[in-house]
Automatic annotation (TrEMBL):
Single GO term (MF): S-adenosylmethionine-dependent methyltransferase activity
Annotated Pfam families: Methyltransf_11
Gene field: LOC100756479
Top-level taxon in the UniProt lineage: Eukaryota
Phylogenetic lineage: Eukaryota, Metazoa, Chordata, Craniata, Vertebrata
Residue ranges occupied by any Methyltransferase type domain in the UniProt entry: 149-232
Organism this protein belongs to: Cricetulus griseus
UniProt protein name: Uncharacterized protein LOC100756479 isoform X3
Length: 249
């Protein structure tokens, strides 16, 4: 069916719907996620495949044993909280894991009772929807621009930038060597190496890279991964190491 016929069929269907139900039908059409499978483009599918690959290489919490400080800070949250990476686990994946009993959205407030309360979820990555929104609606055209993601972790900002922007170069700087290896694996498998580079380094040593950047992305980089004195030192570096701006063009 071509566009014209499909459009007429949809209008016909609306015409045949009980008038009292039309507002509810229109509301559903405007807000439902049931159409997602028709609007997903190849780039979304590629990012979902990357999430599948990364999930199979990581523990469910997607926090590594080498990240003791992050683990400790999650445990210190006032309410019971788990790390659920928003890029690796979208709502549908979380629902299926909950159904299989492998994940829970709730915790028991009184051991042995049926009283439960929602668990806090913390993510150390942007979700696919957030990444698309950033590249398609927040940032301007990045043709010829250089983007640096401080603390690139799984590399999601870089892969989405490769697929959804024309940035000439996307740099990730990541302190944790194991995450750098994971990013290298994805870059190789999906052949992103012409525009993505990952540096295993402390951002404090990357003053000239930061000076050359047109856009700098910082997604809650330091709070969970550095002690407070380390955070203070990192954001108060003297020029030329000072971070010029959170995002600039
Ligand atoms: C919250 S994650 C950000 C993930 C990713 N940028 C995103 O938005 O999806 C923060 C990452 O920053 C890294 N990190 C923390 N301090 C850093 C530093 N001084 N230099 C480089 N990376 C750092 C951590 O190891 C962690 O993987």
């Amino acid at each position: 069916m071509d566009f014209g016929r499909a459009r007429r069929a949809v209008l016909q269907l609306l015409g045949a719907t009980a008038p009292a139900d039309v507002p509810a039908l229109l509301h559903w059409m405007r807000t439902t996620r049931d159409f997602d499978e028709f609007t997903q483009d190849n780039n979304d599918i590629m990012l979902k495949n990357i999430a599948d690959d990364l999930r199979s290489c990581l523990p469910q919490e997607a926090v590594l044993c080498s990240e003791q400080l992050a683990l400790q800070k999650i445990r210190q949250q006032p309410e019971p909280t788990v790390h659920v990476d928003a890029f690796l686990y979208d709502e549908d994946v979380i629902d299926s894991l909950c159904e299989e009993g492998k994940m829970s959205r709730n915790y028991c407030t009184a051991c042995g009772s049926h009283q439960t309360a929602p668990l806090g979820f913390i993510s150390h990555s942007f979700s696919l929807e957030e990444l698309k929104f950033i590249y398609q609606h927040v940032l301007p055209d990045l043709s010829g621009k250089v983007l640096v993601d401080i603390g690139s972790r799984l590399g999601t900002v870089l892969y989405a930038g490769y697929l959804y922007s024309s940035a000439v170069q996307l740099y990730g700087v990541e302190l944790n060597g194991e995450f750098c290896q994971l990013q290298e694996m994805v870059i190789k498998k999906y052949q992103f190496g012409d525009r993505i580079k990952v540096l295993h380094a402390d951002i404090c040593t990357q003053g000239s890279l930061l000076q050359s950047a047109d856009v700098i992305v910082m997604n809650n980089v330091f709070e969970y991964f550095l002690t407070e004195p380390q955070q203070a030192r990192t954001i108060h570096l003297p020029p030329p190491l000072a971070i010029p701006a959170l995002a600039s063009i």
